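User: Hey, quick favor. My workstation is busy. Could you predict this chain's structure for me?
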Amino acid sequence: GTAGYIYKDKTPFEKLSDDYYCPVCAAPKRRFRPYEPPVAKNANATDARKARKEQLKKDETVGKALPIGIAVGIVALAALFFYLNSVY
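Assistant: No problem, here it is.
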């Protein structure tokens, strides 16, 4: 349920009837979410580190692409500006 109640009876949660209610807050069965225990600090340190590296790589690529994108945008705007001004 929503009150932080964790269902840990012998009957698997899926096997409970659909009219099961949280004994603490009376939330219906559909309101329950699978319990995900907080990840221990070093439970998967290598995975976390890999993910962080990937993220850094992504950020770097964006960081490199961004100035190019801005430069192209400015050139395009300038070209458009001169084009529009030269028409009249």
